[in-house]
Write a structure and sequence with these properties.
Elements (H helix, E strand, L loop, with lengths): L1 H20 L3 E4 L2 E5 L4 E3 L1 E4 L9 E8 L6 E7 L1 E3 L10 E3 L10 E3 L8 E8 L9 E8 L4 H64 L5
Parallel strand pairs: 2-11
Antiparallel strand pairs: 1-4, 3-9, 5-6, 5-10, 6-7, 8-9, 10-11
């Protein structure tokens, strides 16, 4: 009994190791934020223990934030297939390259209803099991025109006020410099006039002294 149990455990471990070695690993971003009305590339890459086969398939699905049923988004098998109906009809295109292990898609004209989780699953025969990539998409609203206008007015007003202040400071400094120069010129003229008067007085005194015989 013990020998049978030991053999079963060894076989289970070997099968698990074989499954892990043959599994496909899928890699995606954890979260993507995009603006309402824009287009967003959802990147998904994979690694496989086997070469890329003709049977490689890619399945993209979507689950809304309300956790309702999953919806098909995109399918690839030898060539891309867009969903024939649903919210993503005519809004999803293939943007990958299987030879480079890239199975990304492009979602066009994003809407708030696109908020949710996208899953990317890859099978590459004989690697038919593996991880499933998940990326959460958050669609945010655009900045409204009124907000942009208000921001532009605020920035313009601040810039205009700064220019006025700088101009006023420069003008005040120029006026002070000119006033200082005028005072210096007046003082220099007064000093020159005083020296001239003193020189005249000295000359008059010399002329008034009588000459000795």
């Amino acid at each position: 009994m013990r020998a049978w149990l030991r053999a079963a455990l060894v076989l289970g471990a070997q099968l698990r190791a074989l499954w892990l070695a043959a599994a496909v690993e899928v890699h995606t971003a954890k979260e993507v934020v995009a603006v309402n009305g824009t287009n967003q590339r959802l990147k998904c890459t994979f690694s496989s223990s086997s070469p890329v086969s003709q049977q490689l398939s890619v399945s993209w699905n979507f689950q809304p934030e309300d956790l309702s049923a999953h919806e098909p988004v995109f399918y690839y098998l030898k060539e891309p297939y867009q969903p024939p109906s649903g919210r993503f009809k005519d809004r999803v295109t293939w943007d990958g390259n299987v030879e480079r292990h890239d199975v990304s898609i492009m979602v066009w004209n994003l809407k708030p209803s696109d908020n949710g989780t996208f899953t990317c699953q890859v099978t590459n025969w004989p690697d038919v099991y593996g991880t499933i990539g998940e990326v959460r998409l958050r669609v945010v609203q655009k900045v409204s025109f009124s907000e942009i206008h208000f921001l532009a007015v605020a920035i313009g007003s601040a810039s205009g006020l700064m220019i006025i202040v700088v101009t006023a400071v420069i003008i005040c400094r120029q006026h002070r410099r000119k006033a200082r120069d005028r005072r210096a010129e007046a003082a220099e003229a007064a000093d020159s006039e005083r020296k001239e008067k003193e020189s005249l007085k000295m000359g008059e005194k010399k002329d008034s002294i009588p000459l000795e015989d």
